[in-house]
Amino acid sequence: MNPIPPTRDIHAYLAELEDIPGTRVYTAARARRGYHINQFAMSLMKADNRDRFRADEAAYLNEWPISDEAKAALRARDYNRLLDLGGNVYFLSKLFSTDGLSFAEAVSTMTGMTFPEYRDMMLAGGRSPIGNRSIKGGY
Question: pTM of the prediction?
Answer without folding.
Answer: 0.81
